[in-house]
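sry for the spam today, last one i promise. struct tokens for design, 342 residues
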């Protein structure tokens, strides 16, 4: 049975030492591409607050939630979507959610240039504390993400400011809150030929995802030995790598497929934050890494696009990160993309 590693990153976060943490993260990235981090310094009070406020929001009547529905967010791609509103792998997910991103004002150059996914958040009137909690949480967890990227660059044999210089001085940051109701018995769905998923199998698109989950299990990760569970661990975030890190490393690091099935009798909440390259960044292979020079032990070859969840290879593609992200999100929200990508 494959277990995901738990890495204490307190020395990284408080600045007292990077090399041990970097080596542990490097090993995890070469193996499953999923690990837990503890000692991250994000206050428990903030996590409890956002969890409580999220539950209050999702418990509101549908017509009140619809006032902040994604169609009101326009190009910024923010707001609430109902159960089965998002299609991962072409199938509606059994989840309800809220999309947030960096809070940009109308006079920001990127908003004035009408870049998709850039703009102001939609915040509901109730619960009133949600706005502050979301913005505080995004700042705190983005800081953890930058620290993790410093360790990742050291693990790749680069200097610790490499990501800041090349990709993440103005990162794309997306934050989502999800509510997963209990699924019906999965065997019933199978018998009827329609298996339901809380989230279908997919990879994440950018650099790293930092996920807080409540105490209900359901996240599953496709390791080399098959599917393994990533159950909740108190005070730990789950961290996984996105397609851009797989691309940068020529497949030495893995953007690992994962999925969610809430087969428990309770609802599950999760809070993923995606720390991704700047919108206009071109993400290229890092020569000494992608060529295999830095591979210790079992380097593996880039995967075959036929093997990937959506049939698109991360290696065989060119353009900016913004282009890549937009192509992905328009698949999972087909109706919205018509309004936004014009
Ligand atoms: C995602 C994701 C997992 C979860 O949002 O990309 O994989 O537990 N979420 O919500
Ligand atoms: Ni994911």
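last one done:
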């Amino acid at each position: 049975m494959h277990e995901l590693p738990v890495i204490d990153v307190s020395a990284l976060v408080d600045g007292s030492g990077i090399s041990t943490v970097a080596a542990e993260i490097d090993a995890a990235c070469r193996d499953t591409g999923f690990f837990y981090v503890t000692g991250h310094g994000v206050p428990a009070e903030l996590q409890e607050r956002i969890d409580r406020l999220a539950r209050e929001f999702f418990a509101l009547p549908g017509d009140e939630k619809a006032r902040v529905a994604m169609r009101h967010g326009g190009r910024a791609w923010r707001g609430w979507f109902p159960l089965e509103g998002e299609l991962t792998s072409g199938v509606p997910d059994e989840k309800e959610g809220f999309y947030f991103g960096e809070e940009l004002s109308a006079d920001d150059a990127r908003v004035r240039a009408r870049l998709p996914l850039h703009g102001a958040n939609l915040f509901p009137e109730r619960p009133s504390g949600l706005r502050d909690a979301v913005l505080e949480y995004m700042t705190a967890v983005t800081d953890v993400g930058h620290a993790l990227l410093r360790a990742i660059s050291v693990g790749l044999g680069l200097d610790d400011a490499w990501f800041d210089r090349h990709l993440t001085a103005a990162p794309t940051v997306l934050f989502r809150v999800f509510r997963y109701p209990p699924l019906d018995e999965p065997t019933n769905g199978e018998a009827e030929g329609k298996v339901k998923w809380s989230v279908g199998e997919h990879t994440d698109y950018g650099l790293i995802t930092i996920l807080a989950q409540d105490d209900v299990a359901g996240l599953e990760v496709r390791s080399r030995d098959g599917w393994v569970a990533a159950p909740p661990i108190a005070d730990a975030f789950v961290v996984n790598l996105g397609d851009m890190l797989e691309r940068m490393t020529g497949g030495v690091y893995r953007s690992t497929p994962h999925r969610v099935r809430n087969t428990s009798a309770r609802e599950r909440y999760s809070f993923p934050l995606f720390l991704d390259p700047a919108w206009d960044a071109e993400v290229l292979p890092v020569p000494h890494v992608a060529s295999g020079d830095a591979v210790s032990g079992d380097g593996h070859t880039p995967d075959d696009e036929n093997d990937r969840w959506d049939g698109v290879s991360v290696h065989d593609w060119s353009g900016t990160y913004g282009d890549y992200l937009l192509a992905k999100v328009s698949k999972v929200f087909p109706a919205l993309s018509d309004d936004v990508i014009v």
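Residues 130-155 form the longest helix (26 residues). ok im logging off now
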